[in-house]
Specification:
Helices cover about 25% and strands about 35% of the residues. By secondary structure, it is of the alpha/beta class. It has 2 domains: about 10-60, Roll (2,3-Dihydroxybiphenyl 1,2-Dioxygenase, domain 1), CATH 3.10.180.10; about 75-139, 2,3-Dihydroxybiphenyl 1,2-Dioxygenase, domain 1 (Roll), CATH 3.10.180. The strands form 2 sheets. It has a 4-stranded mixed sheet, covered by helices on one side. Strands 5-8-7-6 form a 4-stranded mixed sheet. The radius of gyration is 16 Å and the shape is globular. It starts with 11 loop residues before the first strand and ends with a helix.
Length: about 140
């Protein structure tokens, strides 16, 4: 292994759902698109500026010992309008997990919130100035 970019970028985030069909329907509505890959027990969406993958896995395939409730690391997806996105998620049936929190000392450059989707997964959302800077540099 070489030094430097050990972690090159987000490839796939996987969420488990006991009701896999309902999860596909919910995320299809949220994202405004059908999954690009869809087989029994697994569906995957490519989303955002870098086509990151969000996978939905039937919880029957969860690893042994997997938690049944919200837990673990929170991945934050950049959004353009944090409040509107949070409100939309709650309208679709998600529940608040962490409130809108400014981590930038009031500048608004790093602001997060998170919800628990109807299937028990934590979905983080964020406005992040560095994300926008990198996007501009890549353009």
């Amino acid at each position: 292994m070489t030094k430097g970019n050990v972690l090159r970028g987000l490839a796939t985030i996987s969420f488990y759902a006991a009701d896999h069909a309902a999860a596909k329907k919910w995320y299809t509505e949220l994202l405004g698109m059908e999954p690009y890959f869809n087989v029994p027990g697994y569906a995957e969406f490519r989303i955002g500026d870098y086509q990151h993958e969000l996978g939905l896995i039937d919880s029957a395939y969860a690893p042994e010992g997997a938690t049944k409730g919200p837990a673990g690391a929170i991945a934050y997806w950049h959004v353009d309008d944090l409040k509107a996105t949070l409100d939309h998620l709650i309208t679709l049936g998600a529940t608040a997990y962490q409130p809108i929190t400014d981590h930038s000392g009031g500048s608004g450059s790093f602001v997060t919130a998170s919800v628990v989707d109807p299937f028990g997964n934590i979905l983080g959302i964020m406005t992040n100035k560095h994300y926008l800077e990198i996007l501009t540099q890549k353009a």
